Amino acid sequence: MIVQELQKIQERCGWLPAEELRALSQRLTVPLHRLHEVASYYPLYRLKPPPRVDVKICRDMACHMAGAERVRAEVEMIASEYPAGSVAVDGVSCLGRCDKAVAAAVNDHHYVLSQTSESLRQLISKAYSKDPLPHAHWDMSPLGLTIDVYNGRSEYLAVKRWFEGMEANALLKELEVSGLRGMGGAGFPTFRKWMAVRGAPGQPKYVVCNADESEPGTFKDRELLRRAPWLVIEGMVLAALVVGAEKGWIYIRHEYPDGIDAVRAELKRAREAGIIGSNILGKGKTFELDIFISPGGYVQGEESALLEAMEDRRGEPRNKPPFPVFQGLYGKPTVINNVETLSWVPGIVLHGGSWYRDMGVKGATGMRLVSISGDVAKPGVYEAPLGQTLRELIELAGGMAGGRPFKAVALSGPSGGFYPAQVPVSELPPKFVQTKMPVGATQFDMLDLALDFNTCGEMGAMLGAACIVYNDTRDMVNQALNAVSFYRNESCGKCVPCRVGGQKMVEMTTELVEGRSPPGRLELMRDLGETMGLTSICGLGQVASNPVTSVLKLFPEEVEAYRKGQKP
Description:
- The structure is a single chain.
- The protein is of the alpha/beta class.
- 43% of the residues lie in helices and 14% in strands.
- The protein contains 24 helices and 15 strands.
- The chain has helices at 2-13, 18-28, 32-39, 61-65, 68-79, 117-128, 157-163, 168-178, 190-199, 220-227, 229-243, 257-272, 303-310, 339-351, 353-357, 390-396, 430-436, 453-459, 476-490, 496-513, 521-535, 539-543, 546-554, 556-563; strands at residues 53-58, 87-92, 104-106, 110-112, 206-211, 247-253, 288-294, 334-338, 367-374, 380-385, 406-414, 419-420, 422-424, 443-445, 466-471.
- The strands form four sheets. The chain has a five-stranded mixed β-sheet with strand order 10-9-15-11-12, sandwiched between helices. A four-stranded mixed β-sheet has the order 2-1-3-4.
- Helix 1 runs antiparallel to helix 2 (18-28), helix 10 (220-227) packs across helix 12 (257-272) and helix 21 crosses helix 23.
- The longest helix has 18 residues, at 496-513.
- The termini are far apart.
- The mean pLDDT is 95.
């Protein structure tokens, strides 16, 4: 695989020297331009030697709220104390450590949390002197959550249960009863996806775990990968047995070195225990499972872009149809599931679909893990029943930090946009108003929103894996500019609406923030957002305008103050 071979060179050399690329071209009998096509696309690779010290400071959502811009400016001043060009400071897209903002990376592989400029000063000094950087101590203790039915032990009882006589149709029925959906944001019923791949013609078939968790505010899969990797491995083995696949990959973002190490170690244990390999538990079934380390880029979280990367191409989304369940990896039927989705499957096999289904509340089905960050007292990953209200979720995270009033929320990272504490009835779908609100009510209290797929769908909201909470001091126009800038930065550039529209949206929002938005500009921004949503190829472009259009719609007082040059 070109992608993985390039990564080996970069790990060894720190960048991709021309002579190494020529040697790789000859060894793989691949034209040199193909290597450059891939290497020039992904943010992981360097085509020039790196500086002696390279500091990248997360600039997105939670870190932005925690003062990333200020920290970066202070660190740039520190860098100026060193010889020119020896210490580089730049921003970077979300590192998946939103619960410990501000997050930063030093020399690519050393990830540090809750950073101030002074703590980074010490790390820069060590890195410049080529002294060993302090070891990051990650929490590797058992999760202690319902999802880990083994309570911190890799027992693989669900696979053993399968070989005691469980059939594919029986497992699919339990998945249907459970109501388990895709937990990466799409919410597609898991049993339908597995059934489609099982029934699809063609061999071989594949199973891929999408562990490229890159949405700002999302870090739940990080905890599963490093603290309960046996769950996702067993879920993949069970998926393979159901659909008839013999090969699978865990596609994991390179910014999760702790998760990569934990999964590698658990794969070794699983292989030794006969859970994966050429003769699973001596029953004659084969399933080989490996890690594929992502070369970077948020758009690789889109399943078809992920497949393009695995096939050694630029990770640009494919047009659909065909869908991956019919023509996925190498054109073959492929199951692609999120880490959490797969991790619930062992418990469903052991305890039945109703076990998972009945954990929901207020008429909803199931349980989920939520990454919550921002202005809450205890940011982190929480296990919560679907149907729980936003108020209950915030209370689970310790309530509002400092006791400040709740002002706004992003229910799905930047992709779902922002909602205020009180949403006017005029901005809600009529059916939602009729079924979810008292007669005569003029506003809906967002804290009362039941967080389940159906209710959020009826409201026109997205229920994702991330929840970012804002207090009454936050400037939502500024937050929207930060979020739409993320999408502009992460666009793959394949389609015009996303590539050009994203840049224009950033420019027009910047005009608004600077108090120089001309007459008619807000209407143009709304029209552009609608056009991007209708015409972009993949989900990135389709949601890229949501942070801005939601603020234009739901925070009109703040927008109007900016338009008049009166920053609130």
